[in-house]
Amino acid sequence: MAVNHKRAHIAVGTEEGYVCIFEIEHSGGLNFYKTLDKQDGRILSLAWHKDGKIIVTGSTDIIKIWDVDSGHTIDRILVGRAEKQKETLVWCLAITNDFTIISGDSSGRTSFWDLQTTTQISSFQAHSADVLTLSLTDDEERCITSGVDPLLMEFTRVSHSTSKTRKWVKSTQRTSHTHDVRALVFAKNCTISGGIDTYLVFSSSTMLTKHFPKQYSALHLSRSSGHLLLNYKSHVDLWRLGSTELEYGALGKALPLRSKPLHIAQVKAKRGSTFTCAALSDDCKWLACSSLVKVHLYRIQDPDGTIPPVLQKLMRPFTDALVPVTSLLFTADSSKLALISAQCIQIWKLDVTPILIHTFNTISATSSIHLACVSSGHYLATADSR
């Protein structure tokens, strides 16, 4: 899938061998525009030329060049095989303004092709495994590749000493990931990459910054009341835990239950919205959950009584909350709630109308808080990505 230079059309390659083109509306919607001729085999990669009239696609053992207006193939390039019995899969493509095609394939090669003559300019065995992604700088003077071999390999276009032609050469390499790199892009003088190891990495020849994934707890236990909150993206489920007469048993064996766990309530996010975090107070009297734009607070009336219990939603409980909130934490005595965002940490006293009693500003807006612990109300401890 790729968007053209004017961001007016998006092309999508399919498993059936079609290239479908859609118009991008100003509102962000898509309208079907046209389909190019069907080819045998799936489309693995594609790229637009800047003029919007040429598309190149990568498949098994072949690169095809398409005329967008006619919808027909105008030429093709056979990429060749490193091993006779092993297919070469063209996983990624780019095309420069001077009609140079750059391809990365399953043999670990990065190749440069002349679109107008369909001949190979140069090829580099720069990776030990599949090249899955590549990116060009805006001035098209540098190209970077990576993939199953997570090495970030940079190529630079240089002038030839004896002629006016310019050629691509390997320049620098660095390792920023531990597993497959699936996506990368140039931004100013920095490369942004991401992959299987879940790190978002900003790197260059002089710097390296890794952003670790934020991990949310999906389980929230109300220890004193024996309730459990399960946090899903689209909803939260409240359970009453089962009970047993035994205090201990055989190692690794579950204790026999006198009463089974019971699902007693569910709170759903609005359609099109998701919950980023949730929390349950230790006495199971308060339930809080947050989306990207709002924090919701519920008072649970008699959680051990009728099923489902009455959930009283407090209207506009946190008028000064800084969203999006990344973590919600109740104090052990269930009297206060901590709202943690990138900008600050807010402490609210719980009541029918919660009261903001303190705000702690974070040291840096770029560092995310990964851990927070609230004691009985006197201390707050945090650790961030720095």
Automatic annotation (TrEMBL):
Gene3D superfamilies: YVTN repeat-like/Quinoprotein amine dehydrogenase (2.130.10.10)
InterPro entries noted in UniProt: Apc4-like_WD40_dom, UTP4, WD40/YVTN_repeat-like_dom_sf, WD40_rpt
Organism: Ornithodoros erraticus (European soft tick)
PANTHER family: U3 SMALL NUCLEOLAR RNA-ASSOCIATED PROTEIN 4 HOMOLOG
Alphabetical list of Pfam families matching this protein: ANAPC4_WD40
Record-annotated membrane-spanning stretches: none
GO biological process, one term: maturation of SSU-rRNA from tricistronic rRNA transcript (SSU-rRNA, 5.8S rRNA, LSU-rRNA)
One MF annotation (Gene Ontology) recorded for this entry: RNA binding
Listed GO CC annotations: 90S preribosome; small-subunit processome; t-UTP complex
UniProt-recorded name of the protein: Anaphase-promoting complex subunit 4-like WD40 domain-containing protein
Residue intervals of the Anaphase-promoting complex subunit 4-like WD40 domain: 9-91
